[in-house]
Each structure stands twice: as structure tokens, then as C-alpha cells.
Amino acid sequence: MNLRSVHGAESVSITSARATAEITLTGAHIAPVTFVLGDREVQPYSLPPWQPQDFPDAEPILSHLRGDFFCMPFGETAAGPIHGEVANNRWHVDRHGPSSVTLSMRASDLDADIHKTVSVNDDDAVLYQQVRSNGLQGRWNYGTHPVLDLSALHPHRAGCPRAPCGTARSTRRSSRYPNAVKPRCCSRGRNSPTSRRFLGWTAPPSI
Which pLDDT does position 156 carry in this prediction? Predict the structure, then answer.
């Protein structure tokens, strides 16, 4: 297993003919990810304009922020850091092959062992993730937290179109913080329903 620094974070790589991904050991954040689509290469996951060493005193979830990461419990918690130790603490590499890596950690805020497998293959341009828990008790709010860089779609709005978003292939319902939000790139905040049903992706509901 070869570890290397990617955007300032110690990371492990996986690759296939259709996709390449970098996974940080701190928080298991995933980015950059390169998909091969015919004669094009695209990198939809966002990297921040800073690196971990720029903010050594920040919570790891912010200093190492990138791409996509698993959250459990999702949001703030009194028992640990925001989005849980799984999004902030260091993971251990259990198995690593050319196109797949399995990491694990003991999450004290969950009192459980968490195992995460990230993989790609030669058949499709897809990033696969599987998360398993051992010893977890109770009901928990959890989910992945993708952050997409859509600046290539709106080059005239530089800095604005980086947005957290679900994947078109798997998302059926989405929810958000119920109060008004005010993105830095917008002049005013807008309210949106806390839950919206996606009937199709040709015209997804605006928020």
C-alpha cells in the first residue's frame, strides 16, 4: 500500500479504466475523483481552496473537507464532533487493492466499529461505497455528504456553484435545514420545503 499526500492530506488511491479516486485517512473523505466518459474526463467532486495545514486548529472535517464523506450521526451531536467521529477521525486501512480499499475505525461516539469500502471497476464510471457497522445499538441519523463542484456548468458565476447534492441515480427524496439560508454568492436567502419528492431529473425541484 502506497500512501501519498493529495491536496495536503495523507490519502490512498484506487483506480480502474473508468474511474480514479483518492481517499483521505482522516475522515475518509473522497476527492478528487476522475470519471472517464468516452473521450472526456470529469471531476465532479469539489476540493476546497485551502489545505489542512492552512488551518491546523480547525476541526478535521473542515481542514480536510473535500468530495464526499460518510456522516454518523449526521449533524451536530453532544457526544462528539459534527457529523461524528467517522467524518473527523483517522481510519485504518484493512485491505487495499488496485480498485478497492476497505477502511475501519472504532467510533467512540457510536460505541461501534465502522467499516467502509470504496471501489471502482472497469465496467462503468461509478464510485461505489459500502458502510457496515458492528455493535451499533439504537436509532441513528446517517448519510453520505457529497459536495459537488458545478463551476464548469456556470463559468460566469465563479465561486457560486459548489453545492452539496445527492446522486441522480439514487436520490428519491431530499431534505434540508428548515430555516432560511443565505449562500455567500447570493444576495438574499430563500426558504424551501424541508422535504421534496424527486419525480425526475429533467426538471428537479428548485430550492
Answer: 56
Say if CB 86 and CB 70 are below 8 A apart.
yes
Sign of CA dihedral 149, 153, 155, 156: negative
CA distances from 158 to 34, 148, 149, 151 (A): 21, 14, 11, 6
Lowest-confidence range among 108-117, 140-149, 195-204? Answer: 195-204
Q: E strand or H helix at 63, and its extent? A: helix 60-63
Upstream peptide bond of 52 is cis (omega within 30 degrees of 0): no
Count of alpha carbons within 13 Å of 18, Cβ hemisphere only? 12
pLDDT for position 118: 97
Across all residues in the chain, what is the average pLDDT? Answer: 81
Residue 54: helix, strand or coil by DSSP? helix
For the full predicted model, state whether its pTM sits above 0.70. Answer: yes
The Cα–Cα gap between 73 and 14 comes to 27
